């Protein structure tokens, strides 16, 4: 059974840092990509970063570029978040694409690219 379990969320002051982790298990075949989305209340789900297994390429949304760093260690993916802002407040969700297309600069941010989702972890940044 596929499972994605996120951890590391919490409350932090503006300018602070958090490190999220997502442990992936239950995959019988290698997956194509693993990444992070976020969803704030009343807003659409936003793709913010992804790691492509096929070529080790990484993708970042403009809103987090230069502040967030994605990395992978075996079946765990991390999101190091620095210089956090109140607008980063959201539920952060881990996601995996196993059957989807090869990633590019556009489709990494589309929710339909991905096949599995975690339950999410809350990140709150106070001003």
What does this structure look like?
- The chain is mainly beta and 127 residues long.
- It has no helices and 11 strands.
- It has strands at 3-7, 10-13, 18-25, 33-39, 46-52, 58-60, 68-73, 76-81, 90-97, 116-117, 121-126.
- Strands 2, 4, 5, 6, 9, 10 and 11 form a 7-stranded mixed beta sheet that branches.
- A hairpin with a 6-residue loop joins strand 4 (33-39) and strand 5 (46-52).
- It is globular and about 45 Å long.
- The mean pLDDT is 94.
Notable characteristics:
mainly beta, globular, four-stranded antiparallel β-sheet, 127 residues, 0% helix, seven-stranded mixed β-sheet, 11 strands
Total count of strands: 11
Silhouette: globular
Cα end-to-end separation: 40 Å
What is the chain-wise order of helices and strands?
A: EEEEEEEEEEE
Strand content: over 45%
Gyration radius from CA atoms, angstroms: 14 Å
Total helical segments: 0
Biggest sheet record = 7 strands, mixed
User: What average pLDDT do the residues reach?
Assistant: 94
Query: Which stretches are low in confidence, meaning pLDDT under 50 for 5 or more residues running?
Result: none
DSSP helix fraction: under 10%
Overall structural class, as computed from helix and strand content, comes to: mainly beta
Layout of helices and strands:
Blueprint: E1 3-7, E2 10-13, E3 18-25, E4 33-39, E5 46-52, E6 58-60, E7 68-73, E8 76-81, E9 90-97, E10 116-117, E11 121-126
Parallel strand pairs: 2-11
Antiparallel strand pairs: 1-3, 3-8, 4-5, 4-9, 5-6, 7-8, 9-10, 9-11
């Amino acid at each position: 059974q596929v499972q994605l379990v996120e951890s590391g969320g919490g409350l932090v002051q503006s300018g602070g840092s958090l490190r999220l982790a997502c442990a992936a298990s239950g995959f019988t075949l290698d997956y194509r990509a693993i990444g992070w989305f976020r969803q704030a209340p009343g807003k659409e789900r936003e793709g913010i970063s992804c790691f492509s297994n096929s070529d080790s390429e990484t993708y970042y949304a403009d809103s987090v570029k230069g502040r967030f760093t994605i990395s992978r260690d075996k079946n765990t993916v991390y999101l190091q978040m620095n210089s956090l802002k109140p607008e980063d407040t959201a539920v952060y969700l881990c996601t995996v694409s196993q059957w989807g297309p090869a990633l590019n600069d556009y489709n990494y941010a589309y929710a339909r690219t991905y096949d599995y989702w975690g339950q999410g972890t809350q990140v709150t940044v106070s001003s």
